[in-house]
Amino acid sequence: MKRDNLVLLAVLILLALVPFAAEFTGQSSWTKLVGQALIYGMAAASLNFILGYGGMVSFGHAAFFGIGGYVVGILYHHFDAGTAFLGIIPGTDQMLVTLPAAVLVAGLAAALVGALSLRTGGVQFIMITLAFAQMFFFLFISLKTYGGEDGIMVRRTNALPGLNMKDKATLYWVVLAFAAAYYLFLRRLVRSSFGQIIAGIRQNERRMAAMGISTLRYKLYAFILSGMGAGLAGALMVNFLRFASPDMMHWTRSGELMVMVILGGVGTLAGPFIGAGALFTLETTLARYTEHWMLPVGILLLVVVLTSKGGLMALIAKLKGGAK
Amino acid sequence: MSPVLDIAGLVKTFGGLTATDHVSLTVDTGEIHALIGPNGAGKSTLINQICGEIIPNAGQIHLAGRDVTRLPPAGRVALGLGRTFQITSLLDDMTVRENLGLAIQAREGGNFRIFDRAAKRNEVWDEADSVLAGSALSARAGVKVADLAHGEKKQLELLMALSQRPRVLLLDEPMAGLGHVESQQMIEALNAARGECAMLLVEHDMEAVFALADRISVLVYGRIIAAGTAEEIRANPAVREAYLGEEDA
Ligand SMILES: Nc1ncnc2c1ncn2[C@@H]1O[C@H](COP(=O)(O)OP(=O)(O)OP(=O)(O)O)[C@@H](O)[C@H]1O
Ligand SMILES: [Mg+2]
């Protein structure tokens, strides 16, 4: 316990130093890369809660990521144009409003998808969640007001009182703070009464029902919580990149989130963040040399999955064990 | 006094097969009612209808006076129904203590809390520890369920089911696969639980049935062909032919 917290603190300090390191070495792109990896880590961690802890293999998680992002984009669009969403809800560029709104809307979308898909299981559940995500994808492509396929440019990052969000480092630290808070939230969640029930449902749903647990309600609640986390990540991403597009909810994005979870370690707290960092770094590095970066990434994924059940987290544990 | 479990005219068909054919039976408070019958007679199918995993085609199930025929499984547990599984069904990644603790936590409620610490719910863990201490599994608390012997899993199933404090407990072959000593332990454990709840005991082990049952019903091809006390069942020619005869041969 104590040691876990020390490691966490050390990692946080290192991550907080990234903007300084970037400036010192002249590699200004580092801040942007690590910031994005942190946000993807949050999205992957939110997926991991239902996938790794709850055993619900959702293949449409990017939908909630994209919806969260679009809430920020759409609110900014109306703020910029001085109009109102549906003629009632005025736009805003205040992060203290846009992020909660994004979380709420993503949660509602997850409630809808979850209520209609959680009765099924196995391959059927995978396909239904994928189908819903595709529906959202095409819905946003068809919204010409909000840029259709091109998406929405957000010319200025949302404002947060007292902070200069135009400053790249400040924005990065805000993202880091959210990522750390989300990590701590998930740590509490999996250790809570609810988290234990969810872990039980993953192992044996029938047994949990025999203990008097209405498993469907618990799964739905978990699915909504998870969708809200993805919505928060999406909202941060749009603030970070100042751009919302349907690509955020493309099915390949859902696949990437899954790869991050599996690569990092299913059902572990830090795994999704490590997986996101690894995949994102690999992608951006390899993309510089070849457009066929998918192939080496795929091979690496195979190697990791085949050699260490449990992803990079298990590999790290093994190395630590070997060092002793 | 009205029975705690009252099944009337239950019918369940799978395609052309009638697995439950107008079954009626009752379990009275404090009673152990045994249900015997050859393989494939429809015993587990009946249990699963009482639990709510399978919905019958016709008939009613009353639990503690309430019609639960269409109630989902969790609702029936809340009304006091407990069960064990013919093929043990536990949480394999968790330890013995964690399995029992989760069963107690499920009963206690507060399970939508997301900011508490499950490991710090002292009332849950104190109860789990005291139940384990008084059981045959006292030395196995920290062992993962996946690493338990078959007989130990059967015992844990019973402890978890009893920890729900059911009014009526459905036991689907609790002795299956147990050795002689383990069977004796299980009989003792069930006898000790007699005061806590009524039981519907599905069992092939006739020694156990005759040792425990207040009443016995015989199910053959989905139909109850005889019901009565142990003496009556032993003496019944139809039962001897259909079921007990097999064992004599
Ligand atoms: N889901 C199902 N679909 C089709 N047939 C089924 C189904 N479940 C059970 N059956 C059939 O119903 C009959 C009764 O099965 P059941 O499992 O209830 O018997 P049982 O009395 O518990 O037998 P055993 O002593 O072997 O446990 C069997 O012929 C079985 O093949
Ligand atoms: Mg059976």
From TrEMBL, chain A:
Domain of life: Bacteria
Entry keywords, A to Z: Cell membrane, Membrane, Transmembrane, Transmembrane helix
Chief place where the protein resides: membrane
Cellular component terms per the entry's GO annotation: plasma membrane
Membrane-crossing residue ranges in chain numbering: 37-55, 62-79, 99-118, 125-143, 170-186, 220-245, 257-282, 294-317
Cell compartments where the protein resides: Cell membrane
GO molecular function: branched-chain amino acid transmembrane transporter activity
Pfam families: BPD_transp_2
Membrane topology annotation: Multi-pass membrane protein
InterPro entries to which the protein is assigned, alphabetical: ABC_transp_permease, LivM-like
PANTHER family noted in UniProt: ABC TRANSPORTER ATP-BINDING PROTEIN (PTHR30482:SF17), HIGH-AFFINITY BRANCHED-CHAIN AMINO ACID TRANSPORT SYSTEM PERMEASE (PTHR30482)
Protein name: Branched-chain amino acid ABC transporter permease
From TrEMBL, chain B:
Keyword Nucleotide-binding belongs to the record: yes
One MF annotation (Gene Ontology) recorded for this entry: ATP hydrolysis activity
Membrane-traversing stretches: none
The ABC transporter domain, residue ranges: 5-246
Domain of life: Bacteria
Alphabetized UniProt keyword annotations: ATP-binding, Nucleotide-binding, Transport
A Pfam family: BCA_ABC_TP_C
Coiled-coil region: none
Keyword check for Cytoplasm: no
Gene3D superfamilies hit by this protein: P-loop containing nucleotide triphosphate hydrolases
PANTHER family: ABC TRANSPORTER ATP-BINDING PROTEIN (PTHR45772:SF2), CONSERVED COMPONENT OF ABC TRANSPORTER FOR NATURAL AMINO ACIDS-RELATED (PTHR45772)
UniProt name for this protein: ABC transporter ATP-binding protein
Organism: Tabrizicola oligotrophica
Lineage: Bacteria, Pseudomonadati, Pseudomonadota, Alphaproteobacteria, Rhodobacterales
